[in-house]
Design goal:
Layout lengths: L4 H17 L5 H7 L5 H13 L27 E5 L14 E6 H5 L6 E5 L15 E5 L9 E6 L2 E10 L2 E5 L14 E11 L3
Antiparallel strand pairs: 1-2, 3-4, 4-8, 5-6, 5-8, 6-7
């Protein structure tokens, strides 16, 4: 059973808590960290993590310290508070309390072993919000669908475009009217699907 994004975030929080403090968080600590009133909701997540062998409990029911040598698959988390929505149109009230704590890796990456980054060169995808110099997060092995932004292999040449179907045949479409649609002369393959992008200001 694969963990949900929330379960992975709780697991990452437990690890970071242990690294910083040298002991494990209680259910009350976890409930406070994730902004839930009921410790029972947190206990259910912990039960799943125990059942799936991601964590263990000692005889007193406390979470054991995670052995990092045996759990090198766990990410080193960067936990950041996520606040409520902010208006990008007219001004609005600001949310003062964090909705939850998230780690950027679990938010952006669903399958670590099949995910890689590519640096974008060029302006053919600007209308999709992808600009020259951006990093795109690409997942391989997932079945592509029409309208997905993909890393396409067009006649052995790699390019970042949107997957389209025209008259029953697949092609690649830019998100910039200055660029034409690309149709394969021989073969079109998809090396991965874009799951997100990162830009540093």
């Amino acid at each position: 059973m694969s963990l949900t994004s929330h379960q992975r975030t709780v697991l990452a929080y437990i690890r970071e808590f242990q690294l910083k403090r040298g002991y494990s968080p209680s259910l009350a600590d976890l409930a406070l960290a994730f902004g839930v009133r009921s410790k029972n909701a947190v206990a259910k997540v912990i039960a799943i993590l125990v059942r799936e062998s991601h964590i263990e409990k000692d005889p007193k029911g406390r979470i054991k310290i995670i052995d990092l040598k045996d759990r090198d698959d766990l990410p080193a988390p960067l936990m950041l508070p996520l606040f409520g929505p902010i208006s990008a149109g007219y001004g609005g009230d600001a949310e003062e309390h964090a909705e939850e704590l998230i780690t950027l890796d679990t938010f952006l990456v669903s399958n670590k072993k099949k995910t890689f980054l590519l640096r974008v060169k060029g302006d053919s995808m600007i209308n999709a919000g992808i600009f020259d110099g951006d990093l795109v997060i690409v997942e391989k092995g997932r079945e592509p669908k029409v309208n997905d932004i993909v890393v396409g292999i067009l006649d052995n040449a790699f390019t970042l475009k949107r997957l389209k179907r025209n008259k029953g045949k697949f092609c690649l479409q830019a998100e910039n009217p200055a660029y034409p649609d690309l149709h394969p002369l021989e073969e079109l393959q998809v090396a991965g699907i874009v799951r997100g992008s990162v830009r540093k200001y």
